[in-house]
Each structure stands twice: as C-alpha cells, then as structure tokens.
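User: Hi! I'm working on a homework problem where we have to compare a predicted structure to a textbook description. Could you give me the structure for the chain below?
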Amino acid sequence: MAETICIPGERLGSVDHYKAGEGTYVRHGFIFSNLAGYKRTTPVDDGEIPELTVVSRKQSSVIPEVRSVVTVKILAVNTKFCSCAILGVEGKSLRETFRGMIRREDIRATEKDKVEVYKSFRPGDIVLARVLSLGDARSYLLTTAENELGVVLAQSEAGVNLVPISWCEMICPKTHVKELRKVAKVQPDYIQTT
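Assistant: Happy to help. Predicted structure tokens:
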C-alpha cells in the first residue's frame, strides 16, 4: 500500500485509472484530494481498478457537501441575499466555520418573486439550510426552499427566544410581538431531548 503526502485540491489521478475513495472528489475526469493527509492506493486483484483515498493523521474534519443539511447563523441581510456562517454539517459541529449565502430566490419553493429577505431572516437567527452548490471562492450557495428548512432559533428584540406560530411568523412570549421569519418545520430527527 503506497502512501504519499497530499494537500486539499491536489490532483491525484484520473478516473480512467482509479476509483475515488474517502477524502477525495471527482471533477472533470480527475480525482482530487479533499483534505490534507496521506494518499493511499489500495491494492486490487487483476482486472479491478485500484481505489484512491486520502486519510488524515488528525481527527477527520467535516466539510459541507452538495445536498447536505447545514446549521448556519445569519450574519447580514440585504435585499438580494443574506450571508451566513456554517456552524455544523448533518448535526456535526465544525472546528472552523465556512461562509455561506442564501439568495432571495432560494428562500422559498413557491412565490419566489414575492420573497423579501428581511421578512425571512434577521442577523443572529439560527437556520437549517441545504447546500445547493460549492459557490465561488468566498461562500457556499445554500437554500431553505423546503418545509423542513428555515429558522429554528431566533431572538426577539427583548432578548427572548421566539416561538413559531406559523410557517412565516414567530412570536415573542414576553412582549407578544409577532415577527416575520421563514420558519422551519423541524423534524423529530433534529430535536434533541434533554
């Protein structure tokens, strides 16, 4: 079993000669490293294609991938999109945050032209979202256009956690003021009982 050191984004080989394994991804017919670590080629029997994997000597880190559900904190909101920090992937906390962006057209599945970003999210909201694409060098593109995705935790101006009352409203239990949000219909899988 051959091992060599590699870094994220390093081209490891062609899909014509290898299968992509753990710690790798395929782009344009080539296999690339997804993390810093050691490249391993698994020996195979005659006629089989060897598998390339990358393993880290450190604790493996979680990276947001396309279609994965992420937990984000909204950082800033404007008329076209909101920017956020990705805090967790599929229920696993990240050691460092990634930047994300939810565009206006990706907030809801219906009536996309009527969506107003500031009526869906506010800075500080904790949101469940799905990764649409890797985006550009600055951020991942995210969506909340599913019933299960949206705001799961938000605070009112009085500093109290808001309580959802519909798919688009939350209420402050202290002041009874209603605030507009794109509320997530939280599934039992995401609720932890204490």
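For your comparison, note the following. The chain has two domains: 2-55, 69-190. The radius of gyration is 21 Å. Good luck with the assignment!
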